[in-house]
Amino acid sequence: MSGQRAAAEPYTTRFQTAVTSIDGRRVWLERSYFYAESGGQPADRGQIDDVRVEDVRVEDGEPVHYLAEEPSFKVGHRVLCSIDWEYRMYCMRAHTASHVLYGAGRRLFDELSYAGFDIGDEKVRVDLETQTEVDDETLIELEEAVNRVVWESRPVSWDDHPVAEVREREDVAFNEATEEGAFAKGRVRLVTIGGPEASGNGGSDGPTSNGSRLAGGATVTVAGKDNRNGNHWDVAACGGTHVRNTREIGPVTVLERSNPGEGVTRVEFAVGPPGIERRSVEKRAVFDAKRLLGTGISDVPGALERLSDDRDALSEQLRSRERDLVAARLEGEKTVEREDEQWLVATVGDLPADVTKDVVDDRLTDTDAAVVVALGGGDSTYAVVGSTGSRSATAVVDELTETFGGGGGGDDRLAQGGGFGVPPAEMRRSLE
């Protein structure tokens, strides 16, 4: 069978075997059920006799076990190997869940293809190539579809097929670059979720010893679904470890999405405790919103939308009043003569600089002043300068920064500076 022995018999967690070679902390075994890191799935954890296994890698076609320390056993000794069942099962659940999610993606997205995969301790990522926009609603649909397949207890099976035959099948998620571990001697290992013809490796939910396998498992079909793979939910070339039945995955929580590259959507999800904790956080947030809004859960979105509309309306009212205040303060000032020009200089308090800039820009179309200067700010003084004459607004800002520090920029007509080390009133006195 193509792939690793661990992938073929993932429920094996304790076995005895002989040591064939040792090089420092590196150990080779006659046979090994430790999964070696491959295709985005991390290596198994566990022990060989009483020595902790830190890593497992495939080197020259053989699994090499990296130990935490040099072992006391010798070549030819028989050793008891134990795999960390909790971590192995986590990886089995996570890997199988990624296949279920991909099957859901095939039903929700257009022209979907597989771009990458990685199992972390807290979350799993699946990279999908699709032109379909994946928004929040789509994430909800993905999560719902995945958890329905988990609930339906679909059997999961794995077996070998000729590579040439699989290449001709449109229903198979097939990527030789990312699933190198699934290929061997012209054959490829396919993992199938659901379908009346699945071999059904499932039936028991616990680990076994020395590779024993249990047959059986019912087939469940989702009515009304777009079954592009016949009655199968997903068929993929894969060299990883998987559970025998989707019910063993447990609840799946979709976390986030991002776009790491052109046409690539990254979906992150969690299984096990991290997923449960995330759901608790989300539920608390919904309950808090329900309580604060004084409404039922189903009415929270509408109440939030109304609150957002009210906030936008208040924000617009506030901005309008701020503009009126700036305009009134400019209107209330008389021009002063400076260097044979009429200048209008005003302080506008701690009103926002962007509002002041908009008002000065508007005022330039209706003023006799050659230069308009508005000074404001709270903790830090800013200056907005407008020019209707030959003098450049940026030149005025440059003069202010040379005298009072800070910096700024703009163009001949409108410029702005900030970070001045003196209050607006002092800058005003220097300009009058």
Brief descriptors of the model:
Threonyl-tRNA Synthetase, Chain A, domain 2; 3 domains; 432 residues; Elongation Factor Tu (Ef-tu), domain 3; Diaminopimelate Epimerase, Chain A, domain 1; 9 helices; single chain; six-stranded mixed β-sheet; alpha+beta
Structure commentary:
It comes from Natrarchaeobaculum aegyptiacum. Belongs to the class-II aminoacyl-tRNA synthetase family. This is Alanyl-transfer RNA synthetases family profile domain-containing protein. There is one protein chain. This protein has 432 residues and is an alpha+beta fold. The protein folds into three domains: 80 residues, Elongation Factor Tu (Ef-tu), domain 3 (Beta Barrel); 204 residues, Threonyl-trna Synthetase, Chain A, domain 2 (Threonyl-tRNA Synthetase, Chain A, domain 2, 2-Layer Sandwich), CATH 3.30.980.10; 113 residues, Roll (Diaminopimelate Epimerase, Chain A, domain 1), CATH 3.10.310.40. Helix content is 31%, strand content 30%. It contains nine helices and 22 strands. The strands form four sheets. It has a six-stranded antiparallel barrel with strand order 1-2-5-4-3-6. Helix 2 crosses helix 3 and helix 6 packs across helix 7. The longest helix has 32 residues. The chain is elongated. About 7% of the residues have low confidence.
